Predict the 3D structure of the following.
Amino acid sequence: MRLTPLGSNALPLVILLGGVALIFLDRTALLSPPAYTERGAAAFERGEWVESIRLFSQAQKHCETDILAHRMLGMSYHNYQWNDEALRQYESVWGLFAQEAALAMRNAGRLYRERGENDQALMCYQRALGTDPAFVGAWVDLADLHIARNEWQPALEAIGRAIELEPENASLKSLRERIMQRLTSEAPKAPEPTPSTPTPRPGGGQ
């Protein structure tokens, strides 16, 4: 019996069956990243370190920012005595936490600026940079806030930090030039020297 291609009438049926299959997989959580984390946690509770490592690794592949999966994978490696990998996962948790916390504070700062609460915005940007000093976007937002407050020297310092992190960024360099021009234009000018008059000598002599 020779197999023949499906006729055009069968195409809707294939699409329908494919949709049903996807719905089934989604409802059973087989394609859901949290499912790997949940199943990994169950394997961890049973002391099945190899299985928990496999499942948490799958969770990471689906969602690289899953902090719980990174932490539990580190604990699984730790219990399995694969200490180098355990340390790598533990350190990645802090990196992810710092990035997420810094992003949240930067976004909070932007919201405070929209509401005109610049002091609160400044505090949020400082928190973001205290958590993640390499967050270029927070340095730029901080510089922009200082510009809005006519604080040109702090603005120059903030944009300078951003350029240190992204030295090839032309837009950052352009912003720095504008800030420097404003600083130059607002710098107090030195008073012009007044012409000195000769001091008459005693006796009125020439």
Observations:
- Residues 83-114 form the longest helix (32 residues).
